[in-house]
């Protein structure tokens, strides 16, 4: 009798135990890292030699709905736009990093240092030099990479450790980027430009001219109210193939400096911690550029949430609170 009861108890407990097991997966290949939930692909991180900077593409909300732009990686998506070739789905960089004591032979007009944002002739390149092994926990999964930020001539000016955490919050999928920058070569100055830094280019079907809208944590809506101002997060929402979905960018409160939002109705949404007086209205009078002494380390942390439904239904504000609780 006791044996039968024990078996029955284990059978009742099994679904609970299975529910606590990691639902996410990470697969590393030569040039990519693939992230999945169960049998569903969520995103692929591209870091091969041919890319100007690592990026995530595609990125799917629940229901296999793409929430970032396909072009230029793929062509022919509904309502396709073909501007800003450098805005590839999801990425991190900055548009003007000035290395002290290093001669720059190739430069881009209007940029004092190295441009890692655009892909115009003379741009810098973020090169992935090492990819660690995936780590699984009961809260998700993570993988660490190492990058070298190089000039157009291939000279290293900045080192980065980028750890990508992946977890599920309700039905939403959260990617968290823990970024550690080290000025290991020389002192660095981050130039005053709007072109940065933790960016996404949303699916063309949800840009504002196609009926989409974006919202921030302060209750503001769309470009006129959001562009150039600080907020904990921004969330772009619209209909893709008849399904309401969204994508959020989270700015961790521990980041120093905090981000202003380079967010546009044409589909760009980027958290920029380095823009100053020249770039953003909220920074009027602030000309104190962000600098790193040689050997100095700076840590930044951002989240990317892909969700179904609108901002309220997806509980984006609640997801941000979960994001703030670090996952090891």
Query: SSE order in H/E notation?
Result: HEEEEEEEEEEEEEEEHEEEEEEH
Shape: globular
Number of strands: 21
**Would you identify the regions where 5 or more consecutive residues have pLDDT less than 50?**
1-22
- What is the straight-line distance between the termini? 43 Å
Number of domains: 1
Tally the helices: what do you get?
3
Overall mean confidence score, pLDDT: 93
Strand content: 35-45%
Estimate percent helicity: 10-25%
Q: For the CA atoms, what is the radius of gyration? A: 21 Å
Largest sheet: 9 strands, antiparallel
Which structural class is indicated by helix and strand composition? mainly beta
Describe it for me?
By secondary structure, the chain is mainly beta. It has one domain (61-324). Helix content is 10%, strand content 41%. The chain is built from three helices and 21 strands. The strands form three sheets. Strands 1, 2, 3, 4, 5, 6, 14, 18 and 19 form a nine-stranded antiparallel sheet that branches. Strands 8, 9, 10, 11, 12, 15, 16, 17 and 21 form a nine-stranded antiparallel sheet that branches. The protein is globular. Mean pLDDT is 93; it is low at 1-22.
